[in-house]
């Protein structure tokens, strides 16, 4: 019985440690500005992401909610919803920005 209790406690602790990985990639040549990523109760801000650059974020979710990315390209505000975050499950995704204002969300294994 003790062994089962210890195994259960260990499993709960490990599940609570799930991390989220988001890689943000500018696949174009134009600079994106004022980028903000929200998800899992976390918020990340990037002043600018030049063409060809990328940034990575690793975090634990603090709460359940959906993801949202907003940014400016050539003075135009663009946003897109993505994913869903919970404290006990991890996500691995790539967000690709392009020169036409497109935002592609890729869920990675």
Textual characterization of the structure:
- The chain is mostly beta strands.
- It is 13% helix and 54% strand.
- Strands 4-1-7-8 form a four-stranded mixed sheet, with no helix packed on it. Strands 3-2-5-6 form a four-stranded antiparallel sheet, with no helix packed on it.
- Strand 5 and strand 6 (76-85) form a beta hairpin.
Name a few traits of the molecule:
109 residues, mainly beta, four-stranded antiparallel β-sheet
Shape: elongated
Strand line-up across the major sheet: 4-1-7-8
Estimate the strand proportion: over 45%
Strand-pairing-aware structural class: mainly beta
Mean pLDDT: 89
Distance linking N and C termini: 35 Å
User: What percent of the residues sit in helical stretches (DSSP H or I)?
Assistant: 10-25%
Indicate the radius of gyration in whole angstroms. Answer: 17 Å
Order of helices and strands: HEEEEEEEE
Q: Given the structure, what is the number of helices?
A: 1
Largest sheet: 4 strands, mixed
Tell me how many strands there are: 8
Uncertain segments are 4-15
How are the elements arranged and paired?
Blueprint: H1 2-15, E1 20-26, E2 32-39, E3 42-49, E4 54-59, E5 65-73, E6 76-85, E7 92-97, E8 103-107
């Amino acid at each position: 019985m003790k062994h089962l209790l210890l195994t259960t406690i260990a499993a709960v602790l490990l599940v609570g440690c799930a991390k989220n990985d988001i890689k943000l990639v500018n696949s174009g040549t134009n600079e994106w500005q004022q980028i903000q990523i929200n998800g899992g109760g976390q918020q990340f801000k990037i002043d600018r992401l030049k063409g060809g650059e990328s940034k990575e974020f690793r975090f634990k979710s603090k709460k359940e909610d959906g993801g949202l990315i907003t940014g400016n390209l050539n003075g135009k505000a663009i946003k897109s919803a993505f994913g869903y975050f919970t404290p006990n499950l991890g996500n691995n995704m790539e967000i690709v920005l392009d020169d036409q204002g497109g935002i592609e969300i890729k869920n990675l294994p």
